[in-house]
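Q: My labmate handed me this sequence with no annotations at all. I'd like to see what the chain might look like in three dimensions before we decide whether it's worth expressing. Could you predict it?
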Amino acid sequence: MQISVVDLSIIIGYFVVAIGIGIIVSRKAIKTMNSYFLGGNALPWWMLGVSDASGMYDITGTMWLVYVLFVYGLKSVWLPWIWPTFNQIFLMVFLSIWLRKSKVMTGAQWIETRFGKSTGANLSHLSVVVFALVSVIGFIAYAFKGIGKFAAVFFPWDLSPDMYAIILMSLTAIYAAKGGMFSVVITEVLQFVVLTVASISIGILAITRVAPGQLEHFIPQGWTTPFFGWTLDLNWTGLIDAVNAKITSDGYGMFGMFFIMLLFQGILKSMAGPAPNYDMQRVLATRSPKEAAKMNWFVNVVLIFPRYTLIAGITVLALANFSPQLQAMGTNIDFEMILPYIIRNVLPVGVVGLLLAGLVAAFMSNYAATINAAPAYVVNDIYKRFVNPNAEESTYVRLSIITTIAFVIIGFAFGFMVDSINDVTLWIVSALYGGYTASNILKWYWWRLNGHGYFWGMMSGILASMVIPELFPEASGIWAFFPVLGVSLIGCIAGSLLTRPEPDAVLMKFYMQVRPWGFWKPVLRKVRVYYPDFQPNPWFKRDVFNVVVGVLWQISLVILPVAIVTQQAHLLVWVLPAIISTSMILKFTWWDKLDEMSRETLPTDFDVKVGGVAR
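A: Here is what I predict for the chain of 615 residues:
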């Protein structure tokens, strides 16, 4: 593509401004470990919410979402449950409050809150570090494949996709490595503004250029509704025949069964809490448990409408302008290239530059947030804890910068080995997270899980996530979640029951500080020996109710911009009332209860009265 001077100037100008701001702000980050990784817990919740939303607005994921909306229509609004997107609702309602009450810096450090400092706790600590670092490498490879493939279409220089990926990711790493959380968050707010302007512009362009009647000529029956039966029932024959083969290869034909699987594994993943990545770092960076909950609510508010306006706009323009060309390609269609195709051939000068700057911003947001998480685990959870606990803060910060660079290089190496965006997506969200889920569900809700059980559950799950896809390559990556989960669950239970429980003081302190609901009665009885008036968490039913209402609220927010851009008036008739009613319910049953839920519940005299945490 011969990109115009205007568009190229917009892109380069944005890159210079973003990197410059990141480097300037980085001066605040180099003082201490806390300021480097958590911004000194001084950033407001709304800013962290915008940052978290911007980090999720990645270019690779956007390419995938355009593909699924193009192929599956409004039924594709359920497919992001693969991640699952509704984990933000679980975090919003209760889990971010529980997590923030731990007052730690990383997910691995949180392990000490739950398991103390025993041998099992040290092992479980290391297992979280291993998972975090494996997932960081996976996400870097994911970003590498997407940005390289995307940039090669637009930029005028004769470079391979992999070379473009190396250049763009290296430039982004400059400010992310130097400035830590401060640089990442501030630049992500700028990036989000650019993305929002670009997204709304594309949505308006699609509405004005493609009439509802025109769109109907390019889509199969059933494309415009999010509802479905036992089977998908989308027949692209005569429109773009190769789409039928793609649906078959994706394994989504029995959509009812697939939906049940998405819901089941999504609930399990969400109950486990956030994985040790940038999402968890944003929760830990908030100023209080109450602000952690508000931050996750705000992510949904600011992320969904602009992102899905862009996705719907690109998809509608592609259907109306490129369906005949795609049909002519036969079986050689690369659906992941729909997004760059439409930008290259349909959008006017100026809009192209704005959108490309926005999409580059999306990549920078997600990638910078990802690599910011890696050094926290290496430096804080390995070097500081086991190697040199008394080093100067400046030493830890320098080592963090070196660690970031090292993981960027390792991620590049794995990026070269990945064949497609879809492959790495399915491995991350299904196989790898299947190994994470069992241990991290039980850590919240079952008192008997100890450090040994957590360690064996995590390590057996990580190993299974690498072995099972190799043993059964013909099976869809999504279905690998269940056997990996089973292996991990066996490791958790066996590892716990074959070893001693954690000391009473450790379990009591965690239970009183975090105050989870679940199977904690034996610990509650011991707590009441010292504190007879202590009350367990009474909000289980209310939390479940709010999660259900919250998921309905979130999916309605997703459908709204797609319905607007595709001009489906019949959807707006029920989507708008659904958003209003669920918002009102959450106002009274969740928002107004945050002070009560976030209150400090660990007595100030616990260490004196109970005898301190056993070592």
